[in-house]
């Protein structure tokens, strides 16, 4: 088996993200390659980079086909579900002792066990009759477990008017990371929402990386709010998708200095010659903050900038800001090695 097989399977998934068979195929390839699980604490599987381990891929297949026993069966095998049953029983017993306002740390610990059998109790704790802190903690725990049974409940949390609950529901749905999660976010943005909510959802859409989010993020670049523009650019940078990259290249040509500032950092995620050219363009920006952002991005973009080494050196020599000049000189030195 070669890495090309994994890459080809990922491309197939991106062309048909609603098909669980693609994720099952990827999971098996990754497992054969030795990438079984990310080195995370129990229950933190959603913080992985996506497409990197068999556990993540099996979970995506499970979310897309919750009635198919194949993926949960494989997860039970590689995650040793049931090995922490005694811990889960003790946590559930403690939660039931203080049923009206249970301790938040216990709810979090229940989610951290990663045990799907904890889901029914957590679903009860998401009730709108519960204090916001309790409901929010339950949503967070559901996100950590990633069971399909919790998905609709987490989506419902987006419509809870309590800010604490909304923030936890956004984070939980972000962790599910599927095309369905992206669609739920986009549908929610069609209704009036507060600025902080829109900002967090835009960043989450970029993190999920579904192609349907590109147009939403692109539209957000026209916002009058600097916070929304920043969230949209960060989202486009996180997607690492050709369509998102194209939108970022267009953003470099915008007259808004704020947009160019965040675009510079986002372009560092794309190790492409066009990204280097766009960053060099920003190095001529009249705003020193934008030039500093572009220099920082070039510092992290890697060997793809080597063909532009002499051009970057020439820009460094004429740069008036000492900090930017020093950073660019460091970039040139790196590119010489």
Note the main attributes of this structure:
mainly alpha, 20 helices, Leucine-rich Repeat Variant, 337 residues, globular
Could you characterize the architecture of this molecule?
The chain contains 20 helices and no strands. By secondary structure, it is mostly helical. Among the domains are: 3-79, no CATH class; 81-176, Leucine-rich Repeat Variant, CATH 1.25.10. It is globular, with a radius of gyration of 22 Å.
Radius of gyration: 22 Å
The rough form would be described as globular
- Counting DSSP H or I runs of 4 or more residues, the number of helices is 20
- Assign a percent range to the helix content: 55-70%
> Which CATH C-level class of the domain at 81-176 is it?
Mainly Alpha
In sequence order, what are the helices and strands, one letter per element?
HHHHHHHHHHHHHHHHHHHH
How many runs of DSSP E, i.e. beta strands?
A: 0
Strand content: under 5%
In angstroms, what separates the terminal alpha carbons?
33 Å
Question: Biggest sheet, in brief?
Answer: none
Give me the secondary-structure category: mainly alpha
Give average pLDDT, whole number.
86
Low-confidence stretches: 41-46
Oligomer: single chain
CATH topology of the domain at 81-176: Leucine-rich Repeat Variant
Reconstruct the topology from this structure:
Blueprint: H1 3-15, H2 20-32, H3 54-64, H4 70-79, H5 85-97, H6 104-112, H7 119-125, H8 132-145, H9 151-157, H10 163-176, H11 179-189, H12 195-208, H13 213-220, H14 226-239, H15 242-252, H16 257-267, H17 273-282, H18 288-301, H19 309-318, H20 322-336
Helix pairs in contact: 1-2, 2-3, 3-4, 5-6, 6-8, 7-8, 8-9, 8-10, 9-10, 10-12, 11-12, 12-14, 13-14, 14-15, 14-16, 15-16, 16-18, 17-18, 18-20, 19-20
């Amino acid at each position: 088996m070669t890495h090309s097989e994994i890459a080809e399977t990922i491309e197939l998934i991106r062309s048909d993200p609603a098909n669980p068979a693609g994720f099952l195929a990827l999971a098996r390839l990754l497992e054969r390659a030795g990438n079984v699980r990310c080195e995370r604490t129990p229950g933190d599987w959603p913080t992985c980079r996506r497409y990197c381990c068999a556990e993540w891929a099996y979970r995506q297949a499970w979310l897309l086909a919750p009635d198919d026993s194949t993926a949960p069966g494989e997860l039970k095998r590689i995650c040793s579900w049931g090995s922490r049953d005694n811990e889960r029983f003790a946590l559930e017993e403690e939660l039931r002792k203080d049923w009206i306002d249970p301790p938040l740390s216990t709810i979090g610990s229940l989610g951290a066990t990663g045990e799907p059998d904890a889901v029914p109790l957590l679903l009860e704790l998401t009730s709108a009759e519960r204090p916001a802190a309790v409901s929010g903690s339950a949503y967070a725990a559901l996100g950590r477990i990633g069971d399909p049974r919790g998905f609709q409940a987490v989506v419902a949390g987006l419509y809870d008017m309590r800010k604490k609950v909304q923030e936890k529901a956004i984070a939980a749905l972000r962790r599910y990371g599927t095309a369905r999660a992206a669609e739920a976010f986009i549908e929610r943005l069609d209704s009036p929402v507060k600025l902080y909510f829109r900002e967090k959802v835009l960043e989450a859409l970029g993190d999920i990386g579904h192609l349907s989010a590109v147009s939403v993020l692109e539209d957000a670049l026209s916002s009058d709010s600097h916070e929304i523009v920043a969230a949209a650019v960060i989202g486009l940078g996180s997607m690492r998708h050709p369509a998102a990259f194209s939108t970022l290249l267009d953003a470099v040509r915008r007259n808004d200095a704020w947009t160019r500032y965040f675009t510079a950092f986002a372009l560092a995620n794309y190790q492409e010659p066009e990204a280097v050219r766009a960053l060099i363009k920003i190095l001529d920006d009249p705003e020193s903050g934008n030039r500093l952002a572009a220099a920082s991005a070039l510092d992290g973009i890697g060997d793809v900038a080597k063909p532009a080494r002499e051009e970057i050196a020439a820009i460094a020599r004429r740069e008036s800001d000492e900090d930017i000049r020093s950073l660019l000189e460091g970039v040139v030195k790196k590119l010489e090695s």
